[in-house]
């Protein structure tokens, strides 16, 4: 045994931390590991749960709060928020890899809660933009990469189901937060409706901060010049998967933002039911994050994600001919279920495409930055299409981009497995 090996073992014994690349040491279960899943659940409740609820804010802003502004201008609030959740992964990923997990949790939790409280005081467009888009978006961005990266240090064979259960918090948030907003605004007004969400975020994020902890530490100090691994884009599977994500996510949020206004504009449903459509989406999405992830542990995450992405695009195209209540609700349920893996599986795929586990945060952050640009422009493009040519072309835009992205992901899989249909990927 070499001196360096002895030193490494002694360091692990003293600190309790393991190497991220020592896959045999990953517990793949146990009390502490599942506590992290609960912590991730609450992080997603207050990141993607809030993001997935923006459709109800979009509708309220268009009809009441910011009615003097166009749907496209209002959609920039949600798009910038989502963009920041993803794009600052290029910073938070490397920070996570270099040992700043706790700092990111604290800063992200503070900014998220503070931003929601400031939103409750906002009455003008620029105030909403600063509080909801910038402050909340930055806070959620600090929380997102650590929340998906940490599970890869506690789970290996069961990573898919662990990620599915953790990320399902985003679906629950997307169910309860729209209901809170729509029910409380008529009773206590917009400010207190938003404050209630802020207090829920405060309580649940405190739990995540208390119980979550890193299991691994970086093996060595990394220079800032190495914190963006551009060489990853020379790896065909990684580059094609990221490009496929860039295309498909461009159309992902169009139904989340515009289905409620669509149902109300064409009087397909009652106004009350129209406000429930976002919650219906997310209820189906809850199931769609768990079952596919469980299957992914046995068949491979990329093998599961590809058909779900393509089917999501086909379902969104189906909205073009949906003018009655029953078909609209059915498509809502189907779209919610099939888009579940859009949030729960990409990080699992990226873990499998990362040979060096100590660079998981960096690689996830890089991929999310690329996808963030797509999501930043995608929904405003859909809003501009709505202004110029109506809802039908919004659904066409979303469906075509999602199917196109899924086809590019097929190319990523082929670059790994060739034409072997049953290969794990």
TrEMBL record:
Keywords from the named record: Membrane, Transmembrane, Transmembrane helix
Main localisation: membrane
Molecular function (Gene Ontology), one example: transmembrane transporter activity
Bilayer topology annotation: Multi-pass membrane protein
GO cellular component terms, A-Z: membrane
Top-rank lineage group of the source organism: Eukaryota
Cellular location(s): Membrane
InterPro entries per record: MFS, MFS_dom, MFS_trans_sf, Proton-linked_MCT
Domain Major facilitator superfamily (MFS) profile: 32-416
Membrane-spanning segments: 31-51, 72-92, 104-126, 133-155, 161-180, 192-212, 238-259, 271-292, 304-321, 328-352, 364-382, 394-416
Pfam families with a match to the protein in the record: MFS_1
Similarity-based family: Belongs to the major facilitator superfamily. Monocarboxylate porter (TC 2.A.1.13) family.
Protein name: MFS general substrate transporter
Organism: Eremomyces bilateralis CBS 781.70
């Amino acid at each position: 045994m070499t001196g360096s090996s002895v030193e490494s073992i002694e360091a692990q014994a003293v600190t309790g931390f393991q190497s991220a690349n020592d896959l045999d040491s990953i517990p793949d279960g146990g009390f502490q590991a599942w506590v992290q899943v609960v912590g991730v659940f609450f992080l997603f409740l207050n990141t993607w749960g809030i993001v997935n609820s923006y459709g109800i804010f979009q509708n309220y802003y268009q009809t009441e709060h910011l009615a003097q502004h166009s749907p496209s201008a209002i959609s920039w609030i949600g798009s910038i928020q989502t963009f920041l959740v993803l794009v600052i992964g290029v910073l938070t990923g490397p920070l996570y890899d270099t040992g700043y997990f706790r700092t990111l949790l604290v800063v992200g939790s503070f900014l998220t809660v503070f931003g929601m409280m400031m939103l409750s005081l906002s009455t003008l467009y620029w105030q909403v933009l600063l509080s909801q888009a910038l402050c909340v978006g930055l806070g959620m961005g600090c929380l997102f990469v650590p929340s998906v990266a940490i599970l890869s240090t506690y789970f290996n064979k069961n990573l898919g189901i662990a990620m599915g259960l953790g990320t399902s918090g985003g679906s629950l948030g997307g169910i309860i937060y729209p209901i809170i907003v729509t029910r409380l605004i008529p009773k206590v007004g917009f400010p207190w409706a938003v404050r209630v969400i802020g207090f829920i975020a405060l309580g649940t994020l405190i739990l995540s901060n208390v119980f979550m902890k890193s299991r691994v530490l970086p093996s060595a100090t990394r220079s800032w010049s190495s914190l963006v691994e551009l060489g990853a884009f020379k790896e065909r599977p990684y580059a094609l998967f990221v490009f496929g994500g860039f295309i498909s996510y461009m159309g992902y949020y169009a139904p989340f933002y515009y289905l409620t206004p669509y149902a109300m504009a064409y009087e397909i449903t009652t106004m009350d039911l129209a406000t429930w459509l976002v919650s219906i989406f997310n209820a189906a999405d809850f199931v769609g994050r768990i079952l596919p992830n469980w299957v992914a542990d046995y068949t491979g995450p990329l093998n599961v994600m590809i058909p779900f992405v393509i089917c999501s695009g086909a379902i969104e195209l189906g909205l073009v001919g949906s003018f009655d209540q029953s078909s609209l609700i059915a498509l809502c349920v189907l779209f919610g279920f099939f888009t579940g893996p859009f949030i729960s599986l990409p990080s699992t795929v990226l873990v499998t495409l990362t040979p060096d586990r100590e660079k998981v945060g960096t690689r996830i952050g890089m991929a999310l930055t690329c996808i963030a640009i797509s999501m930043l422009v995608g929904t405003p493009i859909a809003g501009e299409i709505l202004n110029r040519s109506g809802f039908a072309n919004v659904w066409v835009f979303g469906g075509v981009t999602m199917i196109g992205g899924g086809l590019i992901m097929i190319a990523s899989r082929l670059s790994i497995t060739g034409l072997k249909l049953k290969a794990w990927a």
